[in-house]
Design goal:
The structure is a single chain. By secondary structure, this protein is of the alpha+beta class. The chain has one domain: Alpha-Beta Plaits (2-Layer Sandwich). Helices cover 29% and strands 24% of the residues. The strands form 2 sheets. A 4-stranded antiparallel sheet has the order 2-5-1-6, with helices on one face. It has a two-stranded antiparallel ribbon with strand order 3-4. The longest helix is centred in the N-terminal third of the chain and has 20 residues. The two termini are 12 Å apart. The mean pLDDT is 91.
Length: 117
């Protein structure tokens, strides 16, 4: 799984229309490459946390706590993802290194994680 980390701009929605169009065009091109190579399983973007909720379990055995977004720690948030099916860690690294900047502003960060089977 290639996890796109959130940025201040992705959480606040401050990207200009031109920047958004450029970013989406680059992402679309990249997604087509993944699909043509037969490695794309799923791809998606997430709305900012201002539209989300967080459920935490602070005390064992007690009911969870619900917190309405937005959430403060932007560098710990997820903005989107790609699920890819590849044969090796090296191949996953190659695909991740070929991804466009996911925020188009030099703030992008992608984290590679294996999914339990």
């Amino acid at each position: 799984m290639m996890v796109v980390k959130a940025s201040k701009d992705s959480e606040e929605g401050t990207m200009s229309k031109d920047q958004m169009e450029q970013m989406f065009a680059a992402m679309k091109k990249y997604n087509v490459e993944l699909k043509k190579a037969g490695v794309l399983v799923s791809v998606g973007g997430l709305h900012p946390t201002s539209k989300g909720i967080r459920i935490t379990y602070p005390v064992l055995g007690e009911p969870p706590t619900i917190t309405e977004g937005p959430f403060a720690e932007v560098n710990e948030l997820i903005a989107g993802y790609w699920f890819i099916d590849v044969k090796s860690r090296d191949e996953a690294n190659e695909w991740a290194m070929g991804a466009p900047d996911p925020h188009g502003l030099g703030e992008g960060q992608i984290e590679l994680r294996r999914v339990f089977e």
